[in-house]
């Protein structure tokens, strides 16, 4: 995701912010921008979106972003295509480091601390909110009561396979039952 691909931008330059106290923010796009964001995200509607928090200096050059992300999204149910409304809420923490070391070499390992990023010239708060939205969206939204049916097809004269038959241990229950029955019958005879 590059910043030029984003439909919404709210940039703050750390060089322009107070160096000793937090800068508070409370972002909520208007209805027209929410419609553009919904189109960009591939969802039916974005009824609400809010990013509220602060950008606090850490030492002389680093910054800490702490925010609460909330949104209400409408997506199509994966089974019925009916609209499904979901409320999203996440805490966000990012550390912007002026002297963050750049990884070198062909293969690099992901650091354990995934909240650290290199300090940019401007921190785009809207980009943070849009990334949180993308990560929080349900992948397979379902309307209440919507269930996948079972399709059964087979050539004439062939017993159809059901979903249950494709599971790796589907026949284990029958084998154990047969073994238990054989042991029980053997005990009755003796």
What does this 3D model show about the protein?
With 190 residues, the chain is of the alpha+beta class. It folds into two domains: 134 residues, no CATH class; 39 residues, no CATH class. It contains three helices and seven strands; from the N terminus they run E-E-H-E-E-E-E-E-H-H. A five-stranded mixed sheet has the order 2-3-4-5-6, with helices on one face. A two-stranded antiparallel ribbon has the order 1-7. A hairpin with a 3-residue loop joins strand 3 and strand 4. The model has no long low-confidence stretch (mean pLDDT 85).
Short description, anyone?
The protein has 190 residues and is α+β, with helices and mostly antiparallel strands. The protein has helices spanning 31-41, 125-136, 172-189; strands spanning 11-12, 23-27, 45-58, 62-76, 83-97, 116-118, 123-124.
- Radius of gyration equals 27 Å
Give the integer mean of the pLDDT values. 85
Low-confidence stretches: none
Class derived from helix and strand content: alpha+beta
C-alpha end-to-end distance: 73 Å
Count of separate DSSP helical elements: 3
Main β-sheet, in a few words? 5 strands, mixed
Quote the beta fraction: 25-35%
Fraction of residues in helix? 10-25%
Tally the beta strands. 7
Shape: elongated
Kindly give the count of domains: 2
- SSE ordering: EEHEEEEEHH
Sequence of strands across the biggest β-sheet: 2-3-4-5-6
């Amino acid at each position: 995701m590059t910043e030029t691909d984003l439909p919404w931008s709210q940039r703050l330059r750390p060089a322009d912010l107070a160096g000793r106290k937090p800068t508070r923010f409370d972002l909520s796009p208007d209805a027209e921008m929410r419609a553009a964001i919904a189109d960009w995200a591939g969802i039916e509607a974005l009824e609400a979106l809010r990013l509220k928090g602060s950008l606090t200096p850490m030492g002389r050059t680093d910054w800490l972003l702490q925010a609460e992300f909330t949104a209400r999204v409408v997506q199509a149910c994966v089974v019925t295509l009916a609209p499904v409304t979901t409320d999203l809420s996440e805490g966000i923490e990012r550390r912007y480091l002026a002297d963050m070391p750049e990884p070198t070499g062909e293969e690099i390992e992901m650091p354990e601390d995934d909240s650290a990023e290199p300090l940019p010239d401007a921190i785009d708060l809207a980009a943070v909110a849009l990334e949180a939205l993308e990560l929080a969206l349900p992948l397979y939204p379902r309307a209440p009561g919507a269930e996948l049916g079972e399709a059964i097809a087979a050539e004439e004269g062939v017993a159809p396979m059901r979903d249950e038959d494709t599971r790796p241990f589907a026949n284990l229950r029958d084998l154990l039952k047969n073994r238990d029955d054989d042991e029980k019958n053997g005990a009755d005879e003796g």
